[in-house]
Structures are given as structure tokens and as C-alpha cells.
Amino acid sequence: MSSQTIPVDPFDYVVFGGTGDLSERKLLPALYHRQIAGQLSEPTRIIGASRADLDDDGFRTFARDALSRHLKSGEFDEKEVSIFLGRLHYVSVDATSDRGWDAMAALLASGQDRVRAFYLAVGPSLFGDICDRISSHDLINRNTRIVVEKPIGRDLASARSLNDTIGRAFAEEQIFRIDHYLGKETVQNLMALRFANALYEPLWNSAHIDHVQITVAESVGLEGRAGYYDRAGALRDMVQNHILQLLCLVAMEAPPSVEAEAVRDEKLKVLRALRRIDSSNASKVTVRGQYRAGASAGGAVGGYLDELGDANSNTETFVAIKVEIDNWRWAGVPFYLRTGKRMAERASEIVINFKPIPHSIFDGSAGQIIANQLVIRLQPDEGVKQWIMIKDPGPGGMRLRHVPLDMSFAQSFSVRHPDAYERLLMDVIRCNQTLFMRRDEVEAAWKWIDPILTAWDETAQPCQGYTAGTSGPTNAIALIERDGRTWHESR
Ligand code: BG6
Questions:
Q1: What is the pTM of this model?
Q2: Mind listing the pLDDT tens digit of every residue in the chain (491 residues)?
Q3: Cα(392)–Cα(386) distance, rounded to whole angstroms?
Q4: Can 89 be counted among the known catalytic residues?
Q5: What is the DSSP letter of 24?
Q6: 399 C-alpha vs ligand 1 centroid, how far in Å?
Q7: Residue 381 Cα to ligand 1 middle (Å)
Q8: What is the number of other CB atoms lying within 10 angstroms of the CB of residue 205?
Q9: Whose CA is nearest to atom 13 of ligand 1?
Q10: Which atom of ligand 1 is nearest to the CA of 232?
Q11: How many C-beta neighbours within 10 Å does residue 477 have?
Q12: How many CA atoms lie within 13 A of 400 on its CB side?
């Protein structure tokens, strides 16, 4: 099976935080892959910008190193790498003073007609300064876009103020708010599954679906991000953005097209229909957890507090929530969400649990009839499994068996699965906003999250400990089992 690559217009990508972690691990490798795929047109440039005192050659050395460390074996091609490095430039700028901005302006002036994208791979505290200087140095032309990474705020008020800050310099159509989950192949596949098949949509409602589970389990711990993570916690870090976006794609009505506004309007309606969780119900429908010492990826690992070096932190590294969506389609269908660090394995999936059949024509000897399940595996081992009941083959009467119609994407398609950033970086150049979050979506998500955070504060809802390498705290199991249901465990 072959994939199709459509070249994009020549561009200048200016990456603020060009020598940082995101640039090293994700952005540079993603742009390199797009070059290999033949998607970059000439003359395209990638301009690193940061405070570090480097020149073009220094940045090229940094990038070569990044590629050799983060590409998979066989992907580092000396000839392609040298073409790629030739695209790189570097400007040492200070976001908080005028140092370096004239040099940036001079460099960009030589690419007036190109698409120009500024990528803010820096902490949000610098967004305002950078936007103001981009604007005051007249670096915004009609082909300019700005890309911002999460966290977009830590509550509704700070998100609004950040959005206002960016909005002072850029129009909403120029602002690309990245949620990298939306760039994942299998997440986009959700749209294909729902809206390119006649099969599911008639069943996709409370008449036929019992409940939905969304799990994003990680095996990693803090990964050197203690300062950020301890102030955020799992609710802000994963639920406010990635998991709510997944929920929106599962729950939204069919948009009239995949055009950005059409899709984002539908997602927004879902966010606005989420039933409020506050001090009156948070302890019943939310569970907070924090990992203790245990084992992960075959080795012993310390607990969160040891990793953090602070014995008093009450930050959650795990959260489970029972969510209700108050609209006609989903009334009475709970969505159980959970995410955590240092869990048994890295596994993200969406499980649609259909209702049981209304009446069985088989007698007890046929065995139990298990309700259908659709399991959309987001990562790793991307694929879709539709669990159905069949007759056990062979003689001996009617015995029923629960089996998956199993489509593993790796086995079915021999194409490489591009990283989410590859798709998203090119969508910025194409000016396609469908997979990016609009301002009102981000704010609607915070509007739902804020009362949960307040409730946790007001009621001092504790974190329950869970052993690293397990599937989370026992309260999370109780959360779903109280309703007579169980978490789907992938293996
Ligand atoms: C990030 C979070 O947005 O997503 C991290 O800040 C998390 O804490 C990461 O580890 C997970 O992304 P992925 O693509 O590895 O599932």
C-alpha cells in the first residue's frame, strides 16, 4: 500500500526554543522525515532561535546530533541529512529584550514571499514577549502563522489571558494551538471509522452503546520534567487537552465536512454538554492517584515523591473520571476516562462497549454471550478490533465464542506511521486548522476542568497510592465496578 505526498509551498519555520527538548526530539526529526517524503519545496528554511550563543554551524551540529539520536535505525541518510542541514539557520535572540531581533528581521526579509511560521517551543511565560516583538519588528506578513504548544493556561483565567496575549499580535486564523494527539494516525482514523462507514453511525448512541472507556496509560514517570509536572498534575497535563479531544471525536455529531470550523464547532458542542463536576459530586466520580515505588519496564523504580525530591507533594499522577454528556445522543451513557504515569504498560485505547442483545435464542450450553466491543488501539500496536460472538467451529452442538475481527495497522499497511508532529507541522504550512484547537474549545475545556480542580482543593480530595507498574489505584477499579462494569485490560 503506498501513501501519497503532496508538496507544500516553500516556507520559513522559525522555531523559538530551537535548541530545546521538543525541537531536538520531535520537530527536527519530523521536518527531516517530511523532506525525505519529498514534501518540502525549495527554498525552504528552518530557523532555530533561542538565547543560546550559537551560529548556523553550531545549530547544524546540534541538529545532526538530534537526528542521529532520535531517528530510528536506517533512517539517518547521510545525503539527505546534509541537504537538511543546509536548510538550517540560527539566530540568537532574547525574548525579553531587543537583542537579535534585527538579525531575525534581516534573515526573514530574504524570504518575503514564503509561508512564515513561528513555532513557540518555549514556556508560556515567554509567549507574550515573543509575540509582541514579532509584531513590533514587523515580522508578520499575510502568510504568517504562529504555533503554540500546551500548556495553554493552568485554568480558565490564565488560558484567557494567554489567548488575549497571542491575539494582540495574531488573528485567530493565524493561531495554531497544537494538541499532538490530534496528529496521531489512529486518532484521525476515528473520524474515518465513524464517518466513512455506514456500519457504526446508526448504532453510535445511547440506544445501542452501554458505555465508553478512554484510557491513556504511560509507563514513564517524570522524565526530568518535575518542575512543570508537579504544578500541573494528570488532570491538567492529559485530561484537559488530549483526553477531552479524544472524547470529542468519539462523541461529536457528524460535521458537514472536515473543514476546520465544521469539525471544531461540533467538538465545542460536546465540551459544552459535559456534566459539571464540582464539590457536590467530585469525590464520587473522580479518583486521584500517585505512584509509589514499584517496577516498570522490567526494573525497580522509585515513587513519585522520591523522583520529585519532595515528600509533601499532593499532585496526582493518575486520574480516573466518570463523565456524563448531557445531550440526546449520549444521555445515560457514561464515559470512563483514565490516565496515569508509571502504569503497567504504555497503552492508549478507546473502547466502545455496545449493549447486550435483548434476548438470547441459545440455551445455557452455548455459553455466555458477551456484548460487542469496538476497541480502537491508539498506541502502540495501532489497530482496531471489533469483538463479536461466533459459533465455535466444529461438531458438538452450538457453542459460542467471543473473538476479535482484528485489524492491526502495522500488518495491514506496509507504510511507515508518521509521527503526529509531521502531519501537524505540514498542516500549519497548508493553513489547515482542522487538527488544531480553536480558542473557544480550549476555554470550554478549562471551564469544565476548573470546578474539578476547585472541588479537589475545597474537599482536600487525597491521592490514593498505587504501585508503579500496576493499573492504578483500587479506587479507580471501584469507580467503574460500582456501576457493574470493568475496565478493559488490553492484554
Ligand atoms: C504530553 C504530556 O502532552 O503528552 C506528557 O505533557 C505525556 O506528560 C505526553 O507523557 C504523552 O504523549 P505520547 O504521544 O507519548 O502519548
A1: 0.95
A2: 445 788 999 999 999 999 999 999 999 999 999 999 999 999 999 999 999 999 999 999 999 999 999 999 999 999 999 999 999 999 999 999 999 999 999 999 998 889 999 999 999 999 999 999 999 999 998 899 999 998 899 999 999 999 999 999 999 999 999 999 999 988 889 999 999 999 999 999 999 999 999 999 999 999 888 989 999 999 999 999 999 999 999 999 999 999 999 999 999 999 999 999 999 999 999 999 999 999 987 789 999 999 999 999 999 999 999 999 999 999 999 999 999 999 999 999 999 999 999 999 999 899 999 999 999 999 888 899 999 999 999 887 899 999 999 888 777 777 778 899 999 999 999 999 999 999 999 999 999 999 999 999 999 999 999 999 999 999 999 999 999 999 998 75
A3: 17
A4: no
A5: I
A6: 44
A7: 17
A8: 13
A9: 181
A10: 6
A11: 15
A12: 16
Distance of alpha carbon 316 from alpha carbon 313, whole angstroms:
9
Domains in the chain, CATH or no CATH each: 11-149 (3.40.50.720), 182-481 (3.30.360.10)
Question: How many Cα atoms are found within 13 Å in the side-chain-facing hemisphere of 275?
Answer: 18
Q: How many A from CA of 184 to the centre of ligand 1?
A: 12
Nearest-angstrom CA–CA distance, 277 and 322: 10
C-alpha cell recorded at residue 399: 457453542
| 3-state SS, residue 354 | strand
